[in-house]
Each structure stands twice: as C-alpha cells, then as structure tokens.
Write a structure and sequence with these properties.
mainly alpha, single chain, about 150 residues
Amino acid sequence: MPSIHKFEDIQAWQEARHLTQVIYRLTRKGLFARDRGLTEQIQRAAVSAMTNIVEGFDSASNLEFGRFLGYTRRSASEVQSLLYVALDQAYITETEFTASYEQAEKVRRMVTSFTRYLRAHPRNNAPTRQRANAPRELTLNAPTRQRANAQTL
C-alpha cells in the first residue's frame, strides 16, 4: 500500500469524492432536482461517505479510524438504497443507476479492505496535536515545591 501523508492520498476517499460528484450530477437533472427531500438525503449520504474518511484519518487511533470507515460504508450503502428510490420514481435511467450503484459499491469494497489493513498494521503517524486548553504537567524544583507547600498551609 502506498504511503499516506494526507487524506487526499487515500484511494477510498478519492473514490468517495467521485461518488459525490456522480450523485450531484444526477440530482441536478429533471424531476430528480425537484424532489428536494430525496435530493438532499442522497447528497448528504454521499458527502458523509467522503467526510467520514477524513474524520477517521484525523483520529488518534486505528480503532477510531476504523469506526469512521464503518460510517463511510453505511453511508455508501445508504446511497445505494436511495438510488433504488430514484430508479423507481424514474428520476434516473437503468444505466445511470448501475453506474452509480457500482461506484458506491467500489467505495464500500475499498473501505472494507482499508479497514482490514488498518487492523493488521498499527499506525505510526497518528495526529499528536495537543489541545490549547489541555492541562499541562508542571515540574517544580525542590525550593519552589517547598514554597508552594508553605503557601498552602
């Protein structure tokens, strides 16, 4: 597997981005564009697949990353389910359905493989940002410690 230094390097993210582009293209056309509820739901699911990969990438552990990849899988599945609604309402053609469904399936497969990889390979480049308001440990030298103890008495 190639090195990953930023989320844009993750192939599953690239494919989820492509899925999002496909869904936005479909939802701009004809009757589909007029069905605000379905349009917004399927767009949110596609965007969620993409962004959950990013959120997982920025997490502190492979376990947490895997949890976000699970969310990505479920979002891609949601896209697939909503594509059936669009097909049944004649908002998209059978060809559009198949191409979009297969793209969502590609995202699901890649995320599943990536999750397996993360479980097998510990991550050494987890973000190590310290929060600005995180408590810091103070080390007091002996004279300062004595003064501090005297002040509390």
